[in-house]
Amino acid sequence: MAAARVTFREERCKGCELCVTFCPKGIITLAKHINSMGFHPATVEDQSKCTGCATCARMCPDLVIEVEREVARVG
Q1: Is 32 helix (H, G, I), strand (E, B) or coil?
Q2: How far is CA 67 from CA 8, 24, 34, in A?
């Protein structure tokens, strides 16, 4: 089973919502707070539901998103 962690460079996010639109699990939303550029940055609602597919990172035009996957080893 793979565990994934998604991180956003919130201060660089312009809230374009491409990651929100293309997340197959629908777990990315825009935060209620505003970053220093005046935008609502993207955030993940529930990290435990992330599969680590990295579609969000590929869609981000500003390279704001990083996806790390950890694979559990058996034995």
Answers
A1: coil
A2: 9, 14, 22
